[in-house]
Amino acid sequence: MRAVRRFTVRASLPESLSGLGDLATNLRWTWHPPTRDLFASMDAELFNRVRDPLRMLTALPPTRLDELAVDEAFLAHAREAVADLDRYLAEPRWYQKQDGTDLPPAVAYFSMEFGVTEALPNYSGGLGVLAGDHLKAASDLGVPMIGVGLLYRAGYFRQALSLDGWQVEHYPVIDPNAFPLELLTDGGEPVLVDVAMPAGRTLHAQIWKARVGRIPLLLLDTDTEANDEDLRAVTDRLYGGDADHRIRQEILSGIGGFRAVRRYCELTGHPQPKVFHTNEGHAGFLGLERAREIIQTDGLAFDEALPAVRAGTVFTTHTPVSAGIDRFPVDLVQRYFADGRLVPDVDPRRVLALGAEDNPGLFNMAHMGLRLAQRANGVSALHGRVSRRMFSRLWPGFDFDEVPVSSVTNGVHGPTWVARELSALLGRNHEELGLDGTQGKPLRDGVSDEQLWALRRELREKLVAEVRRRVRAAWMQRGASALELGWTDTVFDPDVLTVGFARRVPTYKRLTLMLRDPERLRALLLDERRPIQLVVAGKSHPADEGGKQLIQQIVRFVDDPEVRRRIVFLPDYDMSMARYLYRGSDVWLNTPVRQLEACGTSGMKSALNGGLNLSIRDGWWDECYDGSNGWAIPTADGVTDPLRRDELEAAALYDLLGHQIAPLFYDRDAGGVPGGWLSMVWHTLESLGPRVQASRMVREYVESGYLPASRMVAEATGDGYRGALSLADYRTKLDVSWPRVRIFDTELLVEDAAPMVTGTEVIIRARIDLAGLEPSEVDVQAVVGKVGDGDELTDPVTVGMSGDGIGAFAARLKLPHPGSIGYTVRVLPKHRLLATPAELARVVHA
Which cofactor does it need (predicted)? Predict the structure, then answer.
């Protein structure tokens, strides 16, 4: 018989074990080994199988719970764990110890996916795992954050392989009651947020809360009887469906997510957020809802509310290419906003203007994100430069370096990803490592190369065991019989150099670059003296046929009986598999096309475990590679033929593996220890440890994003929105005057006929018509720099010019460079609520 409906009943715990419920439902257990040890002590075999305390409590026989309820040793251990969690949730941490009252009372962090743990499968890959690590680090630091996203009833797909190596997707439906989630209720009834839909319909969403340490994570779910059947499916799958499905998800995420935050804070007393951080542009519509709230509550016009909205918004872009940005047909956006029900009192024409781009038929979510945020950033130093160039058309007249998009390099949550065996060996509590930017005593104190090498082999051995288990399971799933799988017991060797490669499989990440010369790869894998073994994993988006073909190519290669003991493809890559790979791989391989990897954090997780990176200098590796913490694969810069580029870079990869990496790994002393290899491992742990921590990343966001945003919100909204009204009036004045601002005569003078040498003081003068603007309302600048054949200024030095009140401006400066020098004069807007002179995208040049 088949059930007509399925649901989950949670275990009823004896009173003495009631604290276990809080421990199991607060996801701090995912990065807190003592809590995991407590649950493992209840039934080690069961816990190792399910790796989820909540599922374990449901699966334990009632007789075992009754035994534990009177086991004084266990109860003492449980009380200690509950007390430790209570302390963690209440004690002042880094954020509470900061000086000043300007820190925001709360920050709302919006993301389309959150990868906190495989026990809550609400993520697809790097973006979601980064968001999960962001919340965990914020919790450890005490940052008062609220996470906001969607709950996908089918999550992201589970991956299998067909017999011919083609990716097969399936979507297991989840029951939220089976996960560490609780439904937000009011008076016993589910709290619903409503979002208007076309044709007079309404989309309703209930709110599930996950506890990520100190951080509430709110996940909106449309699978409720309050919705029509098609609307119940809005949150069915992550990154699924057509454009209409996606825009519904993004409207719900932004507008519905903002309303969910407001409702949650009202019900619980949590401080209302002052700053809103959007992780990519998916939730960008929230800015419209914030404007709507100000308009209806405080009586401002849209242009008056906009400065307050922008002041409190931080926007992070993860996209290094325009093709990766979410775009919707303009007529589709009009369909949702035209009747005015979705965000009342916000003119639909203003909505469309916020997402305008070169193609008038498309609405650009990243452009809207940038126009609604006063602070924006990329996710590595290189990605920041790429983003400034990519979005420069929004700021015409400014050099690329002046485009107001900064960078905060991503980080990873050490306590989640570092092997506890390594933490124990180094005497480090990785929950605290990196929180204050220091490491304390040197890592090597009291630890020998022999001990570190023995641990690295132990972690590699655990990876080998997991590889064998998964390879066997994958072949069984593909239709093989157990009788023909005896060879899987000899797959991989715990004493062989192990290279890991695991990530999403879009074409730019070049999963198959390693296959460019199959015979050369085969020779590296099967070398009798210095063999290499390679573990590969990754999922392709269900609609990405090119990515699926890459997976099939690699699977067909690894299926060859000659090489299958040295190279494997493991299907269904997730956080659980990732931990084995990061901890057990000696080398982490990354081969994207340069400047197409915004950051990439998998190599950071490997580095924290003593893995050495072998990567194209892209994303984070471009700024962190120092020549001694891994290897940089040379890039074929200037080669426009992609096939030729791949050929050259693959050859460089083979050379590094065969001539540098393998020889160093197998060069052993009399005790069998590779001293040269371990010197690089030690250097990696010491130099990269603090730099790649998510705690460092979140501190940077607090200091360069949340804190200045909070101050600017106070300026904009204080005294009856005095600052916002002032900026709105100023922008209106600029609309009239700016087109008539003119720079007439300019000249550069040298006093006393001094020689033109570096350091000579010069005077630059200009006559300027400000068209009714006051000198205090503009920033007049003299810019001096090197010039080439095209008269473009490089290495510019900028000096403010002062005026005499009747249009004459002058500045003194010393000549900064030898050689061919040029200068110009320019006028920029100036207002105390502007974060940068380029913010309004207005400039007048001489």
Answer: pyridoxal 5'-phosphate
